[in-house]
Amino acid sequence: MNIFRFAGDMTHLASVLVLLLKIHTIKSCAGISLKTQELYALVFATRYLDLFTDYISLYNTLMKLIFLGSSFSIVWYIRYHKIVRRSYDKDQDTFRHYFLVLPCLLLALLINEKFTFREVMWTFSLYLEAVAILPQLVLLQRTRNIDNLTGQYVFLLGAYRALYILNWIYRYFTEPHYVHWITWISGLVQTLLYADFFYYYFQSWKNNVKLELPA
Amino acid sequence: INADSVKDEL
């Protein structure tokens, strides 16, 4: 464990807690893409298949349970909670996320480190996580005005993967034969997808104006 | 679990 990875995990944890806090306290999911949340639940479900078979550390198991629990409860809130669901803007959240799932699955079947069910599922979760934010970014473009909790959520979500890239660089230089191209490339793609959001987020923060994304 | 594998990450 290194500081970059720990900071990345804490940032990731903060992003899901910010979202849960927003939904649970103000009972609203305005501006939140249910599709991105469903994709994230799928990412965690396919990545943490080893939850009950390989014990790595208490920290690892605990964090996996938190991510699984939070992502599925967020989906539940937006889908079924009688108050929260009313603020879900399904006419705007129209990204066909199934078009993301299938290519990621096919790609995982083609490009993976080992052709086993667990490894393909794990690789699928990496590719899917890289594009899971797209419905959310599209929704933000459409709804234009971004309340700051949603802005913070997306920012933290992007920052966590950027910190993971630092972690991979650190591990590459400190651990012999630590090479995982699939992880690195999908993590880089994921972070680049946030790049334009980061740019506008930083601009709005610097000029102290409300975050507006160009149409 | 060989700790150097990336599977020890979240």
TrEMBL record, chain A:
<dbReference type="InterPro" id="IPR000133">
    <property type="entry name" value="ER_ret_rcpt"/>
</dbReference>
<keyword id="KW-0812">Transmembrane</keyword>
<dbReference type="GO" id="GO:0006621">
    <property type="term" value="P:protein retention in ER lumen"/>
</dbReference>
<comment type="similarity">
    <text>Belongs to the ERD2 family.</text>
</comment>
<feature type="transmembrane region" description="Helical">
    <location>
        <begin position="98"/>
        <end position="115"/>
    </location>
</feature>
<feature type="transmembrane region" description="Helical">
    <location>
        <begin position="152"/>
        <end position="170"/>
    </location>
</feature>
<keyword id="KW-0256">Endoplasmic reticulum</keyword>
<feature type="transmembrane region" description="Helical">
    <location>
        <begin position="182"/>
        <end position="202"/>
    </location>
</feature>
<protein>
    <recommendedName>
        <fullName>ER lumen protein-retaining receptor</fullName>
    </recommendedName>
</protein>
<dbReference type="GO" id="GO:0016192">
    <property type="term" value="P:vesicle-mediated transport"/>
</dbReference>
<feature type="transmembrane region" description="Helical">
    <location>
        <begin position="121"/>
        <end position="140"/>
    </location>
</feature>
<dbReference type="GO" id="GO:0015031">
    <property type="term" value="P:protein transport"/>
</dbReference>
<keyword id="KW-0732">Signal</keyword>
<keyword id="KW-0675">Receptor</keyword>
<dbReference type="Pfam" id="PF00810">
    <property type="entry name" value="ER_lumen_recept"/>
</dbReference>
<dbReference type="GO" id="GO:0005789">
    <property type="term" value="C:endoplasmic reticulum membrane"/>
</dbReference>
<keyword id="KW-0931">ER-Golgi transport</keyword>
<feature type="signal peptide">
    <location>
        <begin position="1"/>
        <end position="31"/>
    </location>
</feature>
<feature type="transmembrane region" description="Helical">
    <location>
        <begin position="55"/>
        <end position="78"/>
    </location>
</feature>
<keyword id="KW-0813">Transport</keyword>
<keyword id="KW-0653">Protein transport</keyword>
<keyword id="KW-1133">Transmembrane helix</keyword>
<dbReference type="GO" id="GO:0046923">
    <property type="term" value="F:ER retention sequence binding"/>
</dbReference>
<keyword id="KW-0472">Membrane</keyword>
